Amino acid sequence: SSVALSSMPNLLGEAIALYRKGDFDAALAKYQAVLQEKPKSPDALAGIIRIYLKQKKVDQASHAADQALALSDAPRIRVAHGEVLFRQGRIDEADKEWVGVVNSGYPEARAYLGLARVYRAAAMYQSAEKMILKAHTIDPTDPDIQRRWMGTLSRSERIKYLEDALAGENNWDAEERENTAEYLQYLKERAKRKVPPCRLVSKVTATEAPLVRLMSDPKHLRGYGLSVVLNGHKNSLMLDTGASGIVVRRGIAEKAGISKVTATKIGGIGDKGRKNAYVGIADSVKIGDLEFQNCPIEVRESRSVVDEDGLIGTDVFEDFLVAIDFPNEKLRLGELPKRPGESEMKPALKDEEDDSDEAQPAEPSDNSEAADAKSSSPAHRPGPQDRYIAPEMRSYTRVLRFGHQLLVPTKIGDVPSKLFILDTGAFSNSISPAAAREVTRVHGDSYTTVKGISGAMDKVYSANKAVLQFGRLRQENQDMIGFDTTAISNNTGTEVTGFLGFAMLRFLEIKIDYRDALVDFSYDWKRWH
Predict the structure, then answer these.
(1) Helix axes 75-87, 109-121, angle to 10 degrees
(2) 352 vs 245, 288, 297, 404, 490, CA distance in Å?
(3) Phi, psi of 243 (to 5 degrees)
(4) Do 80 and 46 form a contact (C-beta atoms < 8 A)?
(5) What three-state secondary structure class fits 258?
(6) Which residues does 248 contact at the CB level (< 8 Å), separation at least 6?
(7) Which of 28, 38, 312, 436 is most buried, by CB atoms within 10 Å?
(8) Helix (H) or strand (E) holding 482
(9) What number of other Cβ atoms are within 10 A of residue 173's Cβ?
(10) How crowded is residue 475: how many other Cβ atoms within 10 Å of its Cβ?
(11) Which residue from 408, 207, 234 is spatially nearest to 317, judged by alpha carbons?
(12) Strands 508-513, 321-325: parallel, antiparallel or unpaired by DSSP?
């Protein structure tokens, strides 16, 4: 076997090269060949776990990690196990696994990559940046590390990196490649047009705007909108905590004279895949007393955006403390608490990207491998900052932020807490059938249709009564819709169990601090009883 062993490093090198260029089946075969010779090889065992994760086979990855840990608790295997836990939504456990490896003094680049993902989701942007720089110092060739490290680059460096990455070999799937190519195109167009970043031009730091009732028929409310004036044209756009940016249908963009900058595709709930869209720039966006200039708008090519004129994601107000007061039908935007020793800051409407800084793009999808979020630091800020919990916000719920999505730790019945997306644009609460089965009975439902930006879902279930607990609230939910959230979880990079929807949220006042990933839910008992 001396001959075979001498070929080991070679086999491992070939497996890693195949993995990095996306030939997962061939890489798997090579790793398995390594295990024939050396059954406890940490590199091969960790490699196999990662291949299953890249192939979106989470259960197989989890099984492979359990088997590998039974053979060896080598740091490399523990780090790969952390990656499985993170994808399963068990983020605290993943964090422990990675911290353990880092504290043991073992220089494992992907342990730092993992911690960067945890910190980013918890709005600890400065800590996340330190971790990703450390990971990149240890292993600058790992494509997943490079992808996150890109978030620390200026626009011109980022364009160069993306051009090289798209020209060379990588292990992105088709959707990720397409997103990346679109994002690169967008960056180049912005550079060419020299469009200044979207910014607030009015002198107001706080405003209040009425919420507009959106009816599905004369008796039934399906959501609330906001009056948004685009280039002087007034529209009611659905206020949607589950969406990002401003998305309108083509007719509205044409009326407002919003010109196309680059093509893109948008996806969301639904089985029909991503729809054609383009990104344009609105010269002026007015909401309440606020006016912003040069703001990116996504335009849907098809007739309607989920039967609406358009959507406005609450993340566009991320420089403000956002209060959605459903019972009193008002949106209030106020100042975020100042960090100790902080000077004045100028709020902006969230922009795709600030060119002078290290803001992470919202575009190459909110895919975890692309980037969990953009950094919360527009050009006028002193680099990325860690979450600050002001004394008056101690009672707020700490949520996780992945791109524009706010994931709220939610307990269903007695099982451990799971992650639900806060989504005023979804009508009902919903839950993945697998999670529903842990706590309640699930049955097929042919009467309910779940529609989202990507069309209607093919398989919908409904779940009997489950008790939901989130924030300081406990909600007995008579009925939940169940549908498969796998595609959303794959895009987010962690397990999304369901959605907290409008039918329940409409009774609450919700305060959101995007900067620090904090949300407060309050229910006025007297009002409703």
Answers:
(1) 30
(2) 8, 22, 10, 11, 22
(3) -110, 170
(4) yes
(5) coil
(6) 230, 235, 237, 258, 297, 298, 299, 300, 305, 309, 310
(7) 312
(8) strand 480-482
(9) 15
(10) 18
(11) 207
(12) antiparallel
List all residues 6 or more positions away from 523 whose beta carbon is below 8 Å from its beta carbon: 473, 507, 508
- Considering Cα of 184, then 454, then 219, then 325, what sign does the dihedral take? negative
Q: Which residue has tokens 């979207």? A: 198
Contact 440, 464 (CB under 8 A): yes
Phi and psi angles of residue 357, each rounded to the nearest 5 degrees, phi first: -130, -165
Which residues, including other chains, have CB under 8 Å from residue 278's CB and lie 6 or more apart? 260, 261, 262, 263, 264, 298, 299, 301
- 165: CB partners within 8 A, 6+ apart: 143, 146, 180
Amino acid at 248: V
**CA–CA separation, 309 vs 251, rounded Å?**
9
Query: Would you state the structure tokens that stand for residue 182, as one six-digit string?
Result: 């679109």
The DSSP element (H or E) to which 428 belongs, if any, is none
- CB 111 within 8 Å of CB 92: no
Cα torsion at 396, 401, 406, 411 (round to 10°)? Answer: -70
Amino acid in the structure at residue 500? L
Q: Return the residue matching tokens 């295997």.
A: 77
Contact between residue 462 and residue 480 where contact means Cβ atoms under 8 Å apart: yes
- Nearest CA to 516 among 368, 321, 372, 239? 321
> Measured between alpha carbons, how far is 269 from 287 in angstroms, rounded to an integer?
27
Residues in the chain: 529
Q: Coil, strand, or helix at residue 311? A: strand
Q: Per the structure block, which two tokens stand in for 453?
A: 């930006």
Residues 334, 340, 344, 350, CA torsion sign = negative
Distance CA 334, CA 435 (A): 37
Helix (H) or strand (E) holding 210: strand 207-217
Q: Quick one: DSSP state of residue 339?
A: P
Per-residue pLDDT tens listing for the chain (529 residues): 444 445 667 899 999 999 988 899 999 999 999 999 999 999 999 999 999 999 999 999 999 999 999 999 999 999 999 999 999 999 999 999 999 999 999 989 999 999 999 999 999 999 999 999 999 999 998 989 998 999 888 888 999 999 988 888 888 888 888 888 888 888 888 788 777 788 888 888 889 999 999 988 888 888 999 999 999 999 999 999 998 889 998 889 999 999 787 766 544 444 444 557 788 889 999 999 999 998 989 888 765 445 578 999 999 999 999 999 999 999 999 999 998 877 766 677 765 544 333 333 333 333 333 333 333 333 444 688 999 999 999 999 999 999 999 999 998 877 788 999 999 988 888 888 778 777 665 545 444 444 444 444 444 445 566 778 888 888 776 567 777 889 899 989 999 999 998 888 998 999 999 999 999 999 877 776 6
DSSP state of 420: E
Coil vs helix vs strand at 166 = helix
